[in-house]
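Journal club side-thread
Mid-discussion, someone asked how the predicted structure for our own chain would compare to the paper's figures. Pasting it here so we can look after the session.
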Amino acid sequence: MKKKEIIDSIVEVEKSTEATLQTISTLKEEIVKLLEENHTLQMENTHLRERLSKETQPLTEEETSGLTKSRLNLENIYEDGFHVCNIFYGQRRVEDEPCAFCLEVIYGERK
């Protein structure tokens, strides 16, 4: 091999190496961008899963009817056939007739 051929070969290897380094550098930048995007999406996915689990939890009785626990107890007593109003409290409702006073106590203005 002549000296010029050796130098030409070295120059070609050098150019090839520079091109390879440029490709590696570009790929490295893309990988960094993808890793950042992946991390962002993982965080968003975690937050969405937490929110979804909160939204899909079965509602408690209080949340579905809007009544407090004590009003639910009064409603159960009323449905068992007894008055819960202060006028007839504890008396049996005749033929389970509705009582406006009891209904006001159970479903009246909520604070």
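Post-session note: DSSP finds four helices and no strands in the chain.
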